[in-house]
Fold this protein.
Amino acid sequence: MDLKKIAFDRRLDVLEMVYSKKSGHIGGSMSCMDILTSLYYSVMDIQKIKDHDEDRDRFILSKGHCSEALYTVLADCGFFDKAELETYTRFGTKLAEHPTKGINGIEIATGALGHGLSAAVGMAISLKNRGSAAHVYVLMGDGEQAEGSVWEATMAAAKFGLDNLTMIIDRNRLQISGGTEDVMPLDNLAEKYGAFGCHVVTCNGHDYGELIPALKEGKSKQPTVVIADTIKGYGSSVMENKADWHHNIPTAEEYEQIKADLTKKGMEVS
Ligand SMILES: [Mg+2]
């Protein structure tokens, strides 16, 4: 099946979860879905992850508030029963609004922004020391770039020559309180990461022809940063490029419109 179609199907899953449970971060989940689809359906060897093989690739969702996007992908890839998605955020569920340990496929609990990269750097150092060929991928938000710990961890990644680490930034130019350039300007993020000693690739985060090669690209003795230009709320004009949709719950009318838009787009690409 076409990856773009898979991603629209997962976006529909996210919509159902957010609408039915009145909970979640739909805007950022929609923007990062093509990144997750690329990783789980194409780039990573997910059988090793399912088997908890010590040489498995690692994925860390540093922007943990978009857990529902990852849950839908994990469920569809068979990490756990899809019926569990219906328990999202309900009392006693494993599927809280931020990912926690105890879910097959989740390496660490995340969501406190600025922490995922530090953990990823530690994992990458450990894998390198053991001579493992496994790769570590970490997905951060662009609002998250205002966290100082991101830059401390980036310095360490460059110092230790972590060419087994790919840092992905969901560059949708919005965060909870508005535009990233208004809240805390990132300016030329590629230049900044380059100055910190990283190999930087910029791509369209909704174009698999650009995204997959970018995620596979690397450079000896340097960590790679993939700046994926995306659209917050991707897939429906109800949500696209609107900061309010960071954490909005659709009304019944909006739900119907978003569902129709995502279904139509999914059919167009299949
Ligand atoms: Mg953002």
User: Anything to note?
Assistant: DSSP finds ten helices and seven strands in the chain.
